[in-house]
Amino acid sequence: MAPMPLLLGCTHMPASSAVLYCPPSVFGPTVPLLGDSVAVLPMDLVGFGYAALVTFGSILGYKRRGGIPSLIAGLFVGFLAAYGAYRVSNDKRDVKLSLFTAFFLATIMGVRFKRSKKIMPAGLVAGLSLLMILRLVFLLL
Predict the structure, then answer these.
(1) Where does the sequence pass through the membrane (predicted)?
(2) Distance, CA of 29 to chain centre
(3) HSE of 101 in the Cβ direction (CA atoms, 13 Å)?
């Protein structure tokens, strides 16, 4: 008798009928569990929000000031942050790229904030980047 899938695309593993396996889904990678439930590892929503904020900020800065190099740099750093968040979503200990991106932005924007003493945007991005660094370090613990 063929095993009946409990969830769409999920089947019991052949070695044991108590282990349920589901392939990766749009919600993130899944892990096999004992019993009739499936744990879906959550996406790094904080990381994706941070990446969206950086990307949106670079587009807004371009519209206000018209600096094409700032737009390109902002989009690139936003892409790196989003890819880092994707990697953290797949493996909670894979924080290298996200940590590098947040450290880079904290350094650049921290220097800008020190020079200009303006909270928007340099102080805000530097502060959020420092919080992101702190969060990523806590993920490693």
Answers:
(1) 41-60, 67-85, 97-113, 120-140
(2) 14
(3) 28
